[in-house]
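Hello Y.,

Per our agreement to keep a running log of every chain we model this quarter, I'm adding this entry. I've kept the format consistent with earlier entries: sequence first, then predicted structure.
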Amino acid sequence: MRRTFVRSVVAALVAVVATLPGGARPAQASTGSLLSPITQIYGTLAGGGQPEQVVRQVVTAVAGIRADVLAQLERVSISGVRTCATRHVVEFADLERLAPAAVRTWARDATACVALIDAHLQAAQVGPPQPTPVGPADAKHTVDLLGLVVNVVGPIAMTARLHAGLGNDGLRQVLVGANTTVVSKIEPWCSEGPVYEDDSNVYELWFVCYAFNYSTLPTIGRAEAFQLFLLPPGCEPWHSCEAAPLGPPVDKDRVRSETMKHTSWVVARAVLPLL
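Predicted structure for the entry above:
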């Protein structure tokens, strides 16, 4: 019989999921289809091309994801954030048609919207990573959604400021802080431990992670990997023995990313190097 810490953790999680009232399942931000275009937009802004060419490319890219972004914005419960973000996502398509003075005003308004989103991210009170499913009111769901929104409105504001001839150094610092906050506040819960088979001198060292929204996505809010080890002859499990690895070590960063691939955590980690 296999004895493993993984099984006990999963059992505890299943028990907690079963206690959610009415089988409630909080909505989850869909970042899978948005990660690549958002990262590409930041890459365009960081690429150092001709300003008007960069503006045109970003306007076109945002137009391609506008419908998906607006669908996510409908879920934002903070009215000020929802209003300013929706306005700038919708109006961004007309940026190049605005008069120079109007562009500067619009760019500053977009910058203020980013600052508002960041303020709510910084103020969010969240607990430490934990392997316990959480309900719809948990602040981590808010951080997750705001993390997506700030990385749509942020590049919009940067582009508008570029078009207006304004600097982006200060806004870039705000976006670094916002994305650092997202990464730290919705960090996955991870653990590792050995799994032994009776009557075998081989054991597995497992590494498993759970996303904060595991109760929403139990089939994809979790990832795991293991490394095999060979115990020397005559060594009993749990004794202090020098085991030989039979394979490469676990790529823990990949497991974390796989766990969080449907959250804005992966977006924040992807764009930080571009800021």
